Amino acid sequence: MDDLACQELVELATEYLEGALGAEQRARLEHHLSHCDGCHAHLGQLRAVVRAAEALPEERLSVAAEDELVAAFRAWAAGG
Ligand SMILES: [Zn+2]
Q1: In the chain, at which end, N or C, are there fewer CB atoms within 10 A of the end residue's CB?
Q2: What is the CA(57)–ligand 1 centre distance, in A?
Protein backbone atom coordinates (compact mmCIF):
# COMPACT_ATOMS: atom_id res chain seq x y z
CA MET A 1 0.00 0.00 0.00
CA ASP A 2 1.32 3.43 -0.94
CA ASP A 3 1.90 5.69 2.01
CA LEU A 4 0.41 9.15 2.30
CA ALA A 5 2.55 12.22 2.77
CA CYS A 6 1.81 14.12 5.98
CA GLN A 7 0.59 17.01 3.81
CA GLU A 8 -1.93 14.73 2.09
CA LEU A 9 -3.19 13.51 5.41
CA VAL A 10 -3.80 17.10 6.52
CA GLU A 11 -5.92 17.70 3.44
CA LEU A 12 -7.98 14.56 4.09
CA ALA A 13 -8.23 14.81 7.87
CA THR A 14 -11.50 16.73 8.15
CA GLU A 15 -13.21 14.53 5.56
CA TYR A 16 -11.93 11.48 7.38
CA LEU A 17 -13.41 12.69 10.67
CA GLU A 18 -16.70 13.40 8.93
CA GLY A 19 -16.75 9.88 7.51
CA ALA A 20 -16.65 11.31 3.97
CA LEU A 21 -13.64 9.38 2.65
CA GLY A 22 -13.86 6.34 0.41
CA ALA A 23 -12.65 2.99 1.70
CA GLU A 24 -9.29 3.14 -0.08
CA GLN A 25 -8.34 6.64 1.07
CA ARG A 26 -9.51 5.81 4.55
CA ALA A 27 -7.32 2.71 4.63
CA ARG A 28 -4.28 4.69 3.41
CA LEU A 29 -4.89 7.39 5.98
CA GLU A 30 -5.22 4.90 8.81
CA HIS A 31 -2.07 3.13 7.64
CA HIS A 32 -0.19 6.45 7.82
CA LEU A 33 -1.57 7.15 11.29
CA SER A 34 -0.37 3.76 12.49
CA HIS A 35 3.27 4.76 12.05
CA CYS A 36 3.31 8.59 12.13
CA ASP A 37 3.16 9.88 15.70
CA GLY A 38 2.89 13.52 14.62
CA CYS A 39 -0.19 12.98 12.46
CA HIS A 40 -1.70 10.69 15.07
CA ALA A 41 -1.38 13.39 17.73
CA HIS A 42 -2.69 16.14 15.47
CA LEU A 43 -5.64 14.11 14.30
CA GLY A 44 -6.48 13.34 17.92
CA GLN A 45 -6.65 17.07 18.65
CA LEU A 46 -8.73 17.72 15.58
CA ARG A 47 -11.12 14.92 16.48
CA ALA A 48 -11.63 16.42 19.94
CA VAL A 49 -12.52 19.78 18.37
CA VAL A 50 -14.93 18.18 15.91
CA ARG A 51 -16.64 16.30 18.74
CA ALA A 52 -16.93 19.50 20.75
CA ALA A 53 -18.38 21.25 17.71
CA GLU A 54 -21.06 18.58 17.46
CA ALA A 55 -21.89 18.88 21.15
CA LEU A 56 -22.05 22.66 21.41
CA PRO A 57 -24.67 25.03 20.06
CA GLU A 58 -21.97 27.70 19.62
CA GLU A 59 -21.13 26.40 16.19
CA ARG A 60 -19.29 29.48 14.96
CA LEU A 61 -16.79 29.42 17.79
CA SER A 62 -16.11 25.73 17.32
CA VAL A 63 -15.66 26.05 13.58
CA ALA A 64 -13.16 28.85 14.17
CA ALA A 65 -11.27 26.60 16.56
CA GLU A 66 -11.31 23.79 14.02
CA ASP A 67 -9.99 26.11 11.30
CA GLU A 68 -7.23 27.21 13.61
CA LEU A 69 -6.19 23.64 14.33
CA VAL A 70 -6.29 22.69 10.66
CA ALA A 71 -4.08 25.69 9.88
CA ALA A 72 -1.62 24.71 12.61
CA PHE A 73 -1.65 21.13 11.37
CA ARG A 74 -0.94 22.31 7.80
CA ALA A 75 1.95 24.49 8.93
CA TRP A 76 3.39 21.58 10.87
CA ALA A 77 3.07 19.15 7.94
CA ALA A 78 4.55 21.64 5.48
CA GLY A 79 7.52 22.16 7.77
CA GLY A 80 8.10 18.45 8.30
ZN1 LIG B 1 2.35 12.01 9.08
Answers
A1: N
A2: 32
